[in-house]
Write a structure and sequence with these properties.
Length: 165
Amino acid sequence: MKKKGLVLLLCSVAFASILLTPTLIAKHDDQGSAIFASGKWTYVPLEKDTRVIDDYTFVLGSEEGTWTGTFTGTTYDAYIAVKDPAGVSHLYYGLIEFDSIVIDGREGSLIISFGPGEKIEGQWSGVWEIVSGTGELENLHGKGTWWGPSKNLDYEGHLHFDQRP
């Protein structure tokens, strides 16, 4: 049973790593301009399930995030991370859920992926990308970067709404 869980976890991590490529290409909104996104992302850990296998520490966790700036509100975040035998922490994949948010005067909900990321000398860094939106944010896309010490991160990137015909 343990091997099956480890294989499932490793496959999930590999799949997430393939899906997330840190490229920043700003497209344009309805008026032909990109929206620059920036602000702070702080979080408080909620739950953490930790397993050690062959000197690797696997973590499946959740947290409550507070966002200011372009993204404003409270989120529920879930993630998969690993600390390697050398003590380096790697964030493989995470999802951020905004239940209700307003971007550029439009309201809806968002799912944002975050990761891959890495913690070096106490500083985390990684990428984020909008996975999906609802309501008036259904056609919002964007990606960017995040960085900083644990629980107190900065973010920036670019957003755009699909052009309408």
